Amino acid sequence: MNIKLLLLLFFYSLTCQICYSQNSDFENFFTPSDSLNLRRQNAVLISEAALGTATLVGLNQLWYADYPRSQFHFINDNSDWLQMDKAGHVFSSYHLGRFGAEMLNWSGTDKNKQLLYGAGLGFAFLTAVEVFDGYSAEWGASSGDIIANATGTALYISQELLWKEQRITPKFSFHTTKFANYRPNILGSSTAEQILKDYNGQTYWLSVNLYSFFKGSDIPKWLNVAVGYGAEGMISGTAQNKDSSTPAEQQRFRQFYLSFDVDLSKIKTKSSFLSTVFSVVNTIKIPAPTVEFSRLKYAKYHLIYF
Question: Is 166 left (phi over 0), alpha (psi -120 to 50) or beta?
């Protein structure tokens, strides 16, 4: 997950804050409307348009302005970072779409428009970022990124159409690693930067709600099983781009995880505000006992894995 995608996730959370701050009745304001509320809908659409434009303009000025422009072109980066960046695109597009749909649900917009304009809006923003990349000599539009963006959006929409609920949720977790010390300019010099840049410490999960697949059972409604993907030994995008200061680059390997998780959206609460908080925090995998599988470590058990 790179910093540009995180900026877009921040854009959606900021949209929520702007919308929510407009009402003096704190708790009632967080309650979704049971019918179309044009005032709320207009607030969401105007806020999204304004903040979306500001975000793209900001990216253009702060991120791309320092690099030369070029004709629009594609690059093939599908083998970079052992596809960890692609997992980040799936995660980001899913939650951008989810936040967009939930904000329209809050305004009472009908379900079809939530999926079309809400869930689809995340993919549109991420596509705009790919266009910026395509005109930058430093990067280039990535077909793999576009496919990953479409996958994340499709994961949200397909579950709403098939089950009318989200049974499988992409999530994220992070722990610091030694690899950032080798190339802090690439992998981050502080913890905040490393969360965004150090793919060695990132783990992307598909968290599956068990009760959703076994309705009427005694399984707690909030209990999930999560399957995770990570990678280690990377100080550059490709194995050919090695840094002689570390032998770790020769030990690039994938990691797969099996763990428990909590679906915060399934926790019952009478507070609409808490429901909103749970929805936002539900992007993060809850630390829990975890089994790790990899080519180098085989099976490794973590009492608590971040």
Answer: beta
Angle of helix 3-20 relative to helix 120-134, nearest 10 degrees, comes to: 140
Which structure tokens are listed for 200? Answer: 């060695």
Is the distance from CB of 84 to CB of 204 less than 8 angstroms? yes
pLDDT of residue 156: 97
Residue 59 vs residues 12, 63, 65: alpha-carbon distances, Å = 15, 5, 9
Strand stretches in 113-243, DSSP E = 141-142, 168-174, 202-209, 223-232
**Tokens coding 116:** 């079309």
Distance from C-alpha of 50 to C-alpha of 99, rounded to nearest angstrom: 16
- Report if pTM > 0.85: yes
How many C-beta atoms surround the C-beta of residue 283 within 10 A? Answer: 19
Compute the distance between CA of residue 296 and CA of residue 215 in angstroms, rounded to an integer.
39
Calculate ∠ Cα 265-32-216, nearest 5°: 40
Secondary structure tally for the chain: helices H, strands E: 11, 8
Are 103 and 19 within 8 A, CB to CB?
yes
- The structure tokens listed for 166 are 């989200």
Distance between CA atoms of 156 and 175, rounded to whole angstroms?
Answer: 27
The pLDDT of residue 19 is above 70 = no
Q: Is the pLDDT of residue 12 over 90?
A: no
Count the alpha carbons within 13 Å of 162 in the hemisphere toward its beta carbon. 11
48 or 137, higher pLDDT: 137
Look at residue 258 and tell me whether its pLDDT is greater than 50: yes
CA-CA distance, 169 to 207, in Å (whole number)? Answer: 5
Residue 179 has pLDDT above 80, yes or no: yes
Q: Which residue has the tokens 């434009």?
A: 53
